[in-house]
Each structure stands twice: as C-alpha cells, then as structure tokens.
Amino acid sequence: MKKFTLFAAFAALAVSAGAQETATPDVAGTVVEGQKAVYNLVVAADEVVTALEGAGQEVTDWRVNDETRFLYVWDNTFVGVNTGYPAVGYDGILVGEYEYPNLEVGTVGWSGAGWFISIDAKADASNWNENTRFHVATRTAGTAPTSLAFVIADGGNITGEGENGNTHDGSPAKVALGENFQDGNNVYPSVGPKVSDEWAGLDLSFAELKKFYPSFDWKNANPWEGNVVSVLGGGVQGQSFSIDNMFFYTPAEMEDNAVGKVADDAQFIVTRNTINVANGNGIALYDLSGRMIKSATGTVLGISELGNGIYVAKSGNSIVKIMK
Fold it and tell me: Terminal CA-to-CA distance of the chain, rounded, Å?
C-alpha cells in the first residue's frame, strides 16, 4: 500500500473534496488495499463482505446461517435486547439492516453463548498460524458486565467419540475484557479495559493470545467443528453488551521474504458504527482541515455519533480517506 505523510494526504484530498462533499454512499464497509489476508467472518454486515472481496481479500463466511452455523445461547442465560441499535439477537429477534448481536444477562446466575460451526459447514481453518489474529468490537448501551470473557477457537480436529459426542484435540484461548474472569478454579486473564458505551474491542494474534493464556493450542482444522468463539458475561441480570465485526484474519506472508515477515500496512474496515484496524494499532480520525476529531489507542474507534462527510483515518503509517 502506498504511504503518504498526513499533510500530503490532506493536500491530495482537498483537490477533490468539493466534488464529493454531498456524497452519501450506500456501502458502509470499506477497506484500504494493502497486504492480502484471509478473513474468517463470524459477525459482520454484508457491506463488510462486499468491501473486503472488492479489495481482493480472501473471505470465508462463518456467519450464522441457521443451517450449519449457529449462535447457541444456554437457556435463560442471555436474552436478545433492543439497545437502540439495529441488531439481531437470540432466536433471530430484532433483525435490522446493520446486524450485530445485543445480549443481556438473564436470570440463572451465569451466562454463556457460542458461535458454533458444525462439521457439515466444511469450514476450513487450515490457514491459521501464530500470525492469525482475533478481532472483535464491543460496546454497551446499558450496564456492562464487570468482565466479558471470550473463549477463542474451542474446537478443531475431531479425534474420536467422547461422552457428549465428538471430541477435539484443540485447547482454546480464554481471555477477558475488564477484570480477570473467574470460572470456577480457572482464571481468564484480562487483556483490555471493561466494555463501555464507546465502541472499543481487542485485536490479538494467536501468538499474543498464547502469551496471555499459555495452554492455548489452536488447531488448523479442515473441516472445523465446535464453537469458534464463545462469550461469558457473568451472572448479574440486566448487564448487557453488543458485539460487531468479529472475525479472524491471517495476513499473507511477504513474497520476497523467506522468513515470512508480515507487512505492516494497516487495513481499515469501516462501518456506520466503527472504524476497525486490521494489522495495526491506534486510530486517529481527522477532518479535511487536519483537525483531529477523535482517537483511540486500540484497534476500534466508534463513529456512530459523527455526521455524514469525508474524514481521514490514520493508523501508524497507514492513511485512508473514508466517507460516512
């Protein structure tokens, strides 16, 4: 991806800004072309799929289809809620134009849900390696769980018949946002701040996840079977959270580097609610005069409150013009 200084980027945009000021694009998701990657999408709007494919990225759709890929919620532990955002919740309620799950802790003193992929889906995770990254955007419109836990890659290669059916030889990563998550005698370490009313999230490589949770042993399964991601929200009834843009992505290796160095160009995935950075960290958003509008230290920046217009997003040395 060609890199510009921030000043040069503003200068280049200023030339064409007048012709585009009133544009109201129909497509919400955009990416900047850079190093190619394989994306395994678990929660994402159709516009994100279209944008990634349009940018030449390899996309595999692991989103819920109610045939071979499901969002399972343990009885009464979560309910789907209307938090004021278009969403799809438990049992398909609250389906909106831009869909993402809103879940509220239920009545039984604990909570759990999982994005399950059956063996019939023929999901291929054979591309996963230590550079594969897990990305998710989170927020709350009410009271967030003190600790929101993620169980990542809970499945893999089938090894035989266990007490409850097929068993697997993988061992998932278990991490949390907020306080460390206590699950019996098992502690999920915190890898980021508590969910808040501002879109944020996490983006960690499998190698980084293993440092936080040393027993993590992902499996390059083909086909995959099991919960590709599970969430645990604790046991306090009424606490709630939203999840969007949840996916795995595996950056392609540099063709001219035998040791497989990964390119440092960030890729921006922009929706009506968030800017998500893949292969980058820290986001700053500017208007066309060069004034910083807002910033985030992580890999997700909320933009739902901003008016329509043209902005410039920067992460590291990567810069992209976005239209909202």
Answer: 22
- 187-211 exposure pattern, b = at least 16 Cβ within 10 A, e = fewer: ebebbbebbeeebbbbbbbbebbbe
Residue 59 has pLDDT above 90, yes or no: yes
Single-letter amino acid code for the residue at 17: A
CA gap 253, 250 in Å, rounded: 9
Measured CA angle at 96 (ends 90, 98), to 5 deg: 105
Residue with tokens 């678990």: 42
Instruction: Report H helices in the chain.
Output: 6-20, 46-54, 206-212
C-alpha atoms less than 13 angstroms from C-alpha of 79 in its C-beta half-sphere: 11
Amino acid, res. 63: R
Interior CA angle at 73 toward 107 and 62, to 5°? 155
pTM: 0.79
From residue 74, how far is each of 105, 106, 108, 175, 307 by CA, in Å? 11, 10, 10, 20, 39
Percent share of the chain, pLDDT over 70:
75
